[in-house]
Design a protein that fits this description.
The chain is an alpha+beta fold and about 230 residues long. Strands 5, 6, 7, 9, 10 and 11 form a 6-stranded antiparallel beta sheet that branches. The chain has a 3-stranded antiparallel beta sheet with strand order 3-4-8, with no helix packed on it. It contains 4 helices and 11 strands.
């Protein structure tokens, strides 16, 4: 057929001019949104903040996924917490202790308080959100060692105790610290008044003793010079 090549060429040109089907704009935008993921950010979690909500709860409550710090295994006892600021109130006989949570699962905390070389006093259990506690009944002028203990189902963190502290402040970033309650200003005033009264009484006693001895034993008096007659 002599006209067949022309017919084939005409069909090819016709199909090339037909517009190809384009994907819908909405479908492409949805695909781009699905492929674009928001970067994960750290959760608003501070392990030294008092009444801090656990990081896992922050992850579930947030609109987007956030990152939590890594923790040790729950099958192991927690690492020791880090002792923070200790604010003394000598006049009230109390101190406020701050600490930071370890990078471990923690169920509760408690404080240990040493006074001298005796056994420590154990405070009440505190829940895992607590980072601050108060010590009451401290004696003016007393010296103490305080440690914070963390515990979970596997056990409790270790503490060096009163004998394991090096120097005046203990190990750096450890769970324990030394605190000294200053004497009350009223106590210092009473001490100064007592010392002054004792010195005054001692001076009066010395004077009385001196004059009594003088009257009893006599005292050589300087005689008046006799006038020389001319």
């Amino acid at each position: 057929m002599p006209g067949s090549p022309c017919l084939v060429w005409l069909l090819a040109v016709t199909f090339s001019l037909v517009p190809r089907a384009q994907p819908l704009a909405g479908d492409s935008e949805e695909e781009e949104q699905d492929e674009t993921t928001l970067p994960a950010v750290p959760c608003d979690y501070d392990r030294c903040r008092h009444l801090q909500v656990p990081c896992q709860e922050l992850q579930r409550a947030g609109p987007t996924m956030c990152l939590c710090p890594g923790l040790s295994s729950a099958a192991q006892p927690p690492d020791p917490p880090r002792m923070g600021e200790v604010r003394m109130e000598a006049e009230a006989g109390r101190a406020v202790v701050h600490w930071c949570a370890p990078f471990s699962p923690v169920h509760q905390y408690w404080l240990l308080l040493w006074e001298g070389a005796g056994a420590p006093q154990k405070g009440p259990p505190l829940n895992s959100t607590v980072r601050r506690a108060e010590l009451k009944g401290l004696k003016p002028g007393g010296a103490y060692v305080v440690c914070v203990v963390a515990a979970n189902a596997a056990g409790e963190s270790s503490v060096p105790g009163a004998e394991g502290l090096d120097g005046a402040g203990g190990p750096a970033f450890g769970p324990c610290g030394r605190l000294t309650v200053l004497p009350r200003p009223l106590t210092l005033l009473h001490g100064a008044v007592g010392v002054g009264s004792a010195l005054a009484l001692l001076s009066c006693s010395a004077l009385v003793w001196h004059f009594c001895l003088r009257d009893r034993w006599g005292c050589p008096r300087r005689g008046r010079p006799s006038g020389a007659g001319l």
